[in-house]
Amino acid sequence: MTEFAELKFYATQAHDCSYLPTRKATTLFLDPQQAIDAQTYADLSEMGFRRSGEHLYRPHCQHCQACIPARIPTARFRANRQQKRILKRNLDLRVRAVRPVASEEYYDLYARYITHRHADGDMYPPSREQFASFLLRDLPFCVFFEFRLGERLLAVAVTDVLPNGLSAVYTFFDPLEDKRSLGRLAILWQIAEAARRGLPAVYLGYWIRDCRKMRYKSEYRPLELYVNQHWVTLE
After folding, report:
1. Which residues of the chain are under the pLDDT cut of 50?
2. CA separation (Å) from 109 to 31, 152, 184?
3. Which one in 6, 40, 74, 232 has a CA-CA gap of 20 to 30 Å to 217?
4. What is the DSSP letter of 222?
5. Domains along the sequence of the chain with CATH
6. Helix orientation angle between 104-117 and 128-135, rounded to the nearest 10 degrees
7. What CA dihedral angle connects 94, 114, 177 and 148, to 10 degrees?
8. Phi, psi of 144 (to 5 degrees)
9. What stretches of 65-118 adopt beta strand conformation (E)?
10. Which residues contact 62 (CB under 8 A, 6 or more apart)?
11. Strand pairing partners for 76?
12. CB 187: neighbour CB atoms within 10 A?
């Protein structure tokens, strides 16, 4: 267990919120001089922290509690009818775990995904520098789960393997393969993989009721939300 009294944290100045455009946000970061080990990361994830690049953070807004940490308890999850159809539709894909490395194949898929799906967001336009700083970190717990049809790369789920679960950092996929529902597939596959590894949860980041792009997380039931410093179940 991490001794939190020994850790230092820093809060940013108020900045434009990435999720709710009319609001300002403040972010709490773990001291970047603090080496990120899997156990510290796992302990902080229990308190709603996430990873972006080499930074662990969580929202720290004084007058807004819209960003609620969310996780799926793997032992209790049951796929609904639509999710079962997604799994069946993608039985022809092969998944393998690889170390994060720089490659044109990964960047091309990432750039096409950002351009087609997030041209209205702060990650557009994509760049190699942005891709590397966000996702290509040399961290021992970070894995790229590749989803391939034959040799063709369709999706990559960037995932942190922690003592207390899998943390779904980011997923990018072929934007022209709508019928496969690759984003949802990646979450379903990570739930199954966490169960195979005997891990209790998949951490999904933040659930935000008023953010359209974040509502999909409530499709996975039961969903646990971190409210008032406790994890509570949304059935």
Report:
1. none
2. 32, 11, 17
3. 40
4. S
5. 9-67 (no CATH), 71-234 (3.40.630.30)
6. 100
7. -10
8. -100, 120
9. 68-73, 94-98
10. 26
11. none
12. 22
Written as one letter, the residue type at 42 is A
Nearest 5°: the CA angle 213, 214, 217 is 130
Q: How far apart are CA 140 and CA 65, in angstroms?
A: 32
Which residues have a Cβ under 8 Å from the Cβ of 122 and sit 6 or more positions away? Answer: 18
Are β-strands 165-173 and 223-227 bridged in parallel, bridged antiparallel, or unpaired?
unpaired
**What is the rounded distance in angstroms from the CA atom of residue 44 to the CA atom of residue 31?**
13
For 101-129, what is each residue's pLDDT tens digit? Answer: 999 999 999 999 999 998 887 888 999 99
Measured distance CA(68)–CA(48) in Å, rounded: 8
Around 195, how many Cα atoms within 13 Å sit in the side-chain half-sphere?
Answer: 13
Neighbours of 96 (CB within 10 A): 10
Concatenating the DSSP letter of every residue in 171-192 gives EEE-TT-GGG-HHHHHHHHHHH
As a whole number of angstroms, the distance between CA 153 and CA 212 comes to 27
Q: Which amino acid is at 21?
A: P
- Tokens describing residue 190: 């990570």
19 DSSP assignment: S
Contact (Cβ atoms closer than 8 angstroms) between residue 160 and residue 58: no
CA atoms within 13 A on the CB side of 115: 10
Q: Is the dihedral of CA 11, 14, 17, 18 positive or negative?
A: negative
Q: What is the pLDDT of residue 156?
A: 98
Rounded distance between C-alpha atoms, residue 108 and residue 128, angstroms: 10
**Tokens found for residue 156:** 């990559």
DSSP 3-state assignment of 112? Answer: helix
